[in-house]
Amino acid sequence: MVNAETLGMITINQVTSEPDDTQMKRRDFLTKGALGITAAGLAGCAASDSGPNDSSVVTSDPIRWKMVTSWPSNFPALGTGAVHVAELITRMSGGRLSVEVYAGGELVPPFEVFDAVSRGTAQMGHSASYYWKGRHEAVQFFAAIPFGLNAQQMNSWLYHGGGLELWTELYADFDLIPFPVGNSGVQMGGWFNREINSITDLAGLKMRIPGLGGEVLKRAGGIPVNLPGAEIFTSLKTGVIDATEWIGPYNDLAFGLYQAARYYYYPGWHEPGTTLECLIHRPAFEALPDDLQTIVQTACQAANLDMLSEFGARNARALQQLVDEHGVELRPFPDDVLRRLRDLSDEVVTEIAAGSGPLGQRVFDSYRQFRDESSAWQQISEVAYSQAIR
Ligand code: CA
Fold first, then answer.
1. What is the distance between the alpha carbons of residues 73 and 69, in angstroms, rounded to a whole number?
2. What is the distance in A from the centroid of ligand 1 to the CA of 271?
3. Distance from the alpha carbon of residue 309 to the mean position of ligand 1, in angstroms
4. Do 62 and 97 contact (CB within 8 A), yes or no?
5. Residue 58's pLDDT is what?
6. Cβ neighbours, 10 Å, residue 48
7. How far from the centroid of its chain's Cα atoms is residue 26's Cα?
8. CB neighbour list of residue 280: distance below 8 Å, 6 or more residues apart
9. Where in the chain is the domain with CATH 3.40.190.170?
10. Helix (H) / strand (E) containing 383
11. What is the reported pLDDT for 26?
């Protein structure tokens, strides 16, 4: 069992010491073509232009890629999601490009996925970008930001709002190409053994909550704790921590967290739609013919939809089970608590943007502008509809 955590996890000390010059190097990804028009891509097009009977196309040796992941083997939704996208690519390409998946720790440790793909040890990776904040603070905008974009908004920003172009630009410095490849949807606020009726109830609260959410809790007077997934249950059960967040009903049920805490709070303000990433070693991608590049890109898009759909279906069933069979008490965070946490989150996120250089500031500006624009539309569409059917 690797010591991997998921979707909002421990601080990754291993990745906090990136040499500055790596961050500063900017490669001209636009001229080389982030998504496809490359020398190899054009060569591939030329080959297929010569006709379907061109034997050089159908008899070329299969290309074999390795995919390293941050997840234990077959970890629900995440490990299985990695396998899913690998199988899609292999099957869609008729075996011309086959992808073999390695669980965290098999080929490289879970939190060395970024580096391994960056240097070409593996051609692909399956992870979440907020683990790499030691490389560049702005990577967190492409995974999850407290009170940031939900899953639908993330996909809209990434695919049609300029987000993926910025992400591609950011990762070009590391010889990587990113694609969104899954989403948890909005997570749960976490498991508590005391009620949260006001912001003062967070004072002194020892809670396992990683990343930016943890920083926000700290500013609210709480004590964020980083723990690997395997230690969460026992720590909560024995009172080493007072509360914990994990993912959502599906994964939380599997962890048995209902046996260690009484109240299950919502919503997961700290992870409103965590995006998973597929990382690709850029030279490997650019060496593919155009059709295989399109297959990789399309497989990631299909897997992105599939994971969000899986979480939606499984969370719904698991929530029912938690309440009906295990007597879990669901609680909403009070409005004034959420308002305060939102203000503190804005502070934290603004500071990150200010400290992450010109590209980080551009990412933040794009993200914030998209959030403001899409929130107005969300309010009179999804939100209004949700309220109408309550
Ligand atoms: Ca989480």
1. 9
2. 6
3. 18
4. yes
5. 52
6. 13
7. 24
8. 117, 123, 124, 125, 176, 177, 178, 179, 296
9. 4-185+273-314
10. none
11. 37
Phi, psi of 264 (to 5 degrees): -120, 105
* CA distance from start to end of the chain: 42
Tell me if residue 253 falls in helix, strand or coil: helix
Q: At 146, list the tokens.
A: 């407290």
CA 146 to ligand 1 centroid distance, Å: 11
Identify residue 383 by its one-letter amino acid code: V
Tokens 């995974």 belong to which residue?
Answer: 143
Cross-strand bridge partners of residue 98: 64
- Distances from the Cα of 251 to the Cαs of 188, 316, 317, in angstroms? 11, 12, 12
Would you give the DSSP letter of residue 124?
E
The predicted model scores a pTM of 0.83
Q: Phi, psi (5° rounding) for residue 184?
A: -80, -15
3-state secondary structure of 211: helix
Q: Measured in angstroms, how far is the CA atom of residue 354 from the centroid of ligand 1?
A: 25
Distance 306 CA to ligand 1 centre (A): 19
User: Helix crossing, 357-378 with 163-172: angle to 10°?
Assistant: 160
* Residue 239 amino acid letter: G
By CB neighbour count within 10 A (0-12 exposed, 13-18 middle, 19+ buried), where does 245 fall?
A: buried
Tell me the CB-side half-sphere exposure of residue 122, using CA atoms within 13 A. 28
Other Cβ atoms less than 10 A from the Cβ of 33: the count is: 15
Which CATH class name applies to 190-272+330-388?
A: alpha beta
Question: Which segments of the chain belong to CATH 3.40.190.10?
Answer: 190-272+330-388
Token code pair at residue 39: 């020398």
What top-level class would CATH report for the domain 4-185+273-314? Answer: alpha beta
Cβ atoms of 118 and 175 within 8 Å: the answer is: yes
Give pLDDT, residue 156.
97
Distance 291 CA to ligand 1 centre (A): 36
C-alpha 36/C-alpha 297 separation (Å) is 10
Tell me which amino acid residue 377 is: W
Q: Residue 7 Cα, ligand 1 centroid: separation in angstroms?
A: 5
* Residue in the structure block whose two tokens are 């999850």: 144
Please state, in angstroms and rounded to a whole number, the distance separating the CA atoms of residues 169 and 166. Answer: 5
Pairing between β-strand 243-244 and β-strand 63-69 as defined by DSSP bridges:
unpaired
pLDDT averages per 10-residue partition of the chain, 390 residues: 41 35 38 35 35 50 96 90 98 98 95 97 96 93 96 98 98 98 98 97 95 95 87 95 97 95 97 97 98 98 97 98 97 98 97 94 97 93 94
